Amino acid sequence: MLSIKNLKVSIEDKLILKGLNLEVKEGEIHAIMGPNGTGKSTLAWVIAGRNDFTVEQGEVTYMGKNLLDIPPEARSKEGIFLGFQYPVEIPGVSMTNFMRTAINEKRKHLDLKPLSGAEFLKLMEEKKKLVKIQSKLTDRSVNEGFSGGEKKKNEIFQMALLEPKLAILDETDSGLDIDALKVVANGVNMLRRKDNATIIITHYQRLLDYIIPDFVHVLFDGMIVKSGGKELAFELEEKGYEWIKNKSE
Amino acid sequence: MIANNNSSLKPHAFKKAMIALFENKHDQIPGNSSDIIDKLRQIAFEHFKQLELPSKTMESWRFTNPEPLFRDDYIIDFESKFQKIDVSKIFTCDVYDLDTYCVTLINGWFAYKNSPLSCLKDGTIIGSLYKAMEIYPDIIEKYLGSVAKISEQSLISLNTVFMQDGLFIYVPDNVKVEKPVQVINIVDSDKPVFLQPRNLIIAGKNSKLTLVHCDHSLTHNISFTNTVSEVILHKNAFIDHYKVQNKGRNSALVTSMFFRQEQNSTLNNNVMTLNGGLTRNQVDLSIKGENCTAELNGLYLMDKYQHIDNSVFADHAAPNSRSNQLYKGILDDQASGVFSGKVLVRRGSQNTMAFQNNKNILLTDEAKINTQPFLEIYADDVKCSHGATVGQLDPNAMFYMRSRGICERTARQLLMYAFASEVVKKISIEPLKDNINKLVEKRLKGELSICDQCILNCSSKEPRFVQNILD
Amino acid sequence: MQNNNNKLIDKFTRDEYKYGFYTDIQTDTASKGLSEDTVRFIWAKKKEPDFMLDFRLKAFRHWQKMKEPTWAHIKYNPIDYQDMIYYAAPRKKPQYENLDQVDPELLETFNKLGIPLEEQKQLAGIAVDAVMDSVSITTTYKKKLAEKGIIFSSFSEALQNHPELVREHIASVVPYTDNFFAALNSAVFSDGSFVYIPKGVKCPIELSTYFRINAANTGQFERTLIVAGEDSYVSYLEGCTAPMRSENQLHAAVVEIIAQKNAEVKYSTVQNWWPGDKKGKGGVFNFVTKRGICKGDNAKISWTQVETGSAITWKYPSLILKGNNTTGEFFSVAVTNNMQQADTGTKMIHLGKNSRSTIISKGISAGNSNNSYRGLVKMSKEAANSRNFSQCDSLLLGNRSGAHTFPYIDVQNKSSVAEHEATTSKISEDQLFYCLQRGIDMENAIGLIVNGYAKDVLNKLPMEFAVEAQNLLSVSLEGSVG
Prior knowledge:
The complex is a heterotrimer.
Chain A: E1 2-11, E2 14-24, E3 29-33, H1 40-48, E4 54-62, E5 65-66, H2 72-77, E6 80-83, E7 90-94, H3 95-109, H4 117-130, E8 141-142, H5 148-162, E9 166-170, H6 178-191, E10 197-202, E11 215-220, E12 223-228, H7 231-239, H8 241-248
Parallel strand pairs in A: 3-10, 3-11, 6-9, 9-10
Antiparallel strand pairs in A: 1-2, 1-4, 4-5, 7-8, 11-12
Chain B: H1 11-25, H2 35-50, E1 83-84, E2 101-106, E3 109-112, E4 117-119, E5 125-128, H3 129-135, H4 137-143, H5 154-162, E6 167-171, E7 181-187, E8 193-195, E9 198-203, E10 208-217, E11 223-233, E12 238-246, E13 251-261, E14 266-275, E15 278-287, E16 293-302, E17 307-316, E18 322-331, E19 336-345, E20 353-362, E21 368-377, E22 383-391, H6 395-403, H7 408-424, H8 430-445, H9 466-470
Chain C: H1 2-11, E1 27-29, H2 36-45, H3 50-65, E2 88-90, H4 104-113, H5 119-122, E3 126-132, E4 135-139, H6 142-147, E5 151-154, H7 155-161, H8 163-169, H9 180-188, E6 191-197, E7 206-212, E8 222-228, E9 233-241, E10 248-251, E11 254-259, E12 264-272, E13 283-294, E14 300-307, E15 312-315, E16 318-321, E17 327-336, E18 341-350, E19 356-365, E20 370-379, E21 387-396, E22 402-411, E23 417-426, H10 429-437, H11 442-453, H12 455-458, H13 463-476
Parallel strand pairs in C: 3-7, 6-8, 7-9, 8-11, 9-12, 10-13, 11-13, 12-14, 13-15, 13-16, 14-17, 15-18, 16-18, 17-19, 18-20, 19-21, 20-22, 21-23
Antiparallel strand pairs in C: 1-2, 3-4, 5-6
């Protein structure tokens, strides 16, 4: 599904990703772990298509296409979803209006009829149940005045609505209390299918108690320095990132 | 506001008189020896003829009636009054512990003890502009008239037409002037006078200068001072500039300060107006280089029939710079105030941060304030905001203090003091800050007599005329 | 709200100025040029009472002595007031009992405009007075309103049927001496709307006027007068469009509102005159004087405006808060794109004690346009304990446009409070990327964000108008990025 080969990316002439390789297949959950400042979020931005990076070298293919040539909204319509580490507030724009616009844009892309208001509301209720969000988040402006936990739950809710093929969750677990964490994990598990994939970017092993990854990768200094099964996460938790640092030096 | 009596002229009549004066007595203006100055005067004269003198019909003078400024009985003397006197005999500075290079201008002419123009060890030149025209024609030619908007404002062109003397400072590259320079402008005349001092301050690359500019009158006679200052900050220069004034109620003081900032330079400008008849402070900042910072602060405490007009303009003509305007005022009795702030962000000046804030407290129903914080923005990647408030002291704070047993009067004074201190605390010269703090406090308590309000007390409480000293 | 969003999204794909068609209706016009004869011609044509000729001529003579104002932040080529037609009426006499009698072409025009003229839409509960090229075409719902004693008619009819009412109030808020364009309007205005709400009556439906300039070389000078008696309430909507023409058309209207004790008037405008093409050719010059007076105690007037059209907008809907405890509100969204120029804002003149005013202005500038807020808040010596809060924000799209804020605050007593705040910003890259990541394309993302930005104002509009306004915001900004 997603294939990243020797990816080198810089921001303002500073090389952040220094030759990264990653293969993600349908049905898989990958966890990318690593200390702060090693390029985890940059990887997420590059896959989603933010343009303040320069790809120096390497390739990213998604469903057989060169992903780097595609504008971000088209990537989204093709099924890529990014759960933002810091979801953006958009004052005055209601969640309902926002998501309905997004869904209908996607439907237009897929040659489907746009959803009517009633249909959309119904869909929204369904998905709310699925990801166990009871709050009235959808009546409010996008992320405006949301608590940290609400913002992250809202990302999962959007993911449920958009049903992505490839979801990247960037530090979705950071700053969450245990209940919010369970909501997030439950959302990811409920949405898991044979034909989609998830990349979880996290600093801590905690989220992985609730979402069992197929693969764990350790990102350090712009490269994946170690890959393994879920047991790698426990090892990391136990030994700390110093262990990786020492090993890689 | 100064009295509008029979001697006042309509602007056009005053303009005519000024034109005639220049045409007839052009040769007698001191400092005319050099071609450079003569050429500049001629250019300014041509502009002056084209421009209108301020009147209430002009947008920039809508709320300040300039007509009382224009009189037919001003003494305009072209005889050089370049004076060698011991200034300390007239007065001493009241700001204790303020160790400065102190220079004095009396009725627009430089007064000196030893030499009209001194060169410090580090190469800094401080002294008379008149003398500098003679000794440093190259510097004068390069900078004089380069920042002031001679072609746009009639009072600026008028000053340029008749300028004679004023303060000249040249700080060479990489020189940090240790002690603040203090310039004291004294008006002392027994007849109505019209004075047009001209100041030129140049801060070289990586230089540092602190300048305290004090305006002071020794008499209660009618005077109109039209001061123009040009201040140039070269790359990475730092200027800390204070303008403090205490003038009699019959004095009119229009001060126009033009600043030009080159790359990475920093300007702190503080305008403190504590007393005066009609006072207009024009701060005109032009940011020409990237990464400049400018703090433009002002405080005005007005009572009786005093009128204050602060006109502050920040022109961002380069990207990545920051300007911040903070003007606060308390108006008592029948005092009136005007704040016209403007931020202009020119096309291409991306990443500009420009802020503007004007806060006012009116203490009576007779006091008035007009505030106009304008933004004119032609670049999209900017952070600009402005705010203006007119109001009273926070009633919640008042109640809180009273509930703690503080009487209403004291509570009021404390809050006003706190209101003013936001500006006062930005003064970085400690002795000056302490002194202004005390003045503000006394002023707000209503404890000051007119004479006490002078920031620079006369050594004698009786005003004396300069002539007496010279005799 | 949901339904609202549906419509919004459905209409999102529209582009271009869709109101720019021209209706082929024969018009009855005055000859070009302006003189006392023109003024007399209009007066005679409209069979007005004598006092109107006196009023018009005084205004005309005063206008001749005045100069066009130059203080606004706008630039345009001089207007040749002699090269313009001051009166243009659809030739077929517009007196209709029911809609069947209306020229079908005209009805079609209004249908294209999407204004609810037909019976079916009347169920939506809006009474409409449509003014085309200065002449009122039809006023629906008249009978129903008459039962309550409400007068809602064209200005001409009001002059015929209620001359004393008009005489009492006309120019009482905007005297003909007020400004250049108000004087011009007073001399040559041809029609408009008149509303009178008697004491104690709450108008049960929204009243609405739709203005359209159709004929070429025509100036439109309409005049609206709303008188709300004690304890009454009315909500009034005004919409405008004009066909695409390569020359500039002048629109100089006057609106006067009088609110007596305890009365409340809500006046909403969606202004969508033809803005000219991308290069700034053509478009309507919109020089409008709107002013209301809260005459009696506790009266309240609100202005809500959405300004998306016109090549030039020069407009400052103002309020005189004369009574004690009166309330004035001004909510504005002004969008400029391409070569448009807008200089708009308000004046809040506080004269009564405890008077309150609120100003919320959202300016959005795109393309090469310039958008200025200009406003005055004045608290007189007598207006003890008055309050004003103003918030004037500007949003810049692209680096070729300008956003300006010119507030004037004048306070003359110690117990009043005036607060003004303003910010200037652009749409954040983060917000845009967030939308893009959810699959929303750039133009729609901007439409969404801008509508969100203007929401505080859009929320003040009646529902029917809100949808149209939201569409207009998005449509007006199309092509502003890229």
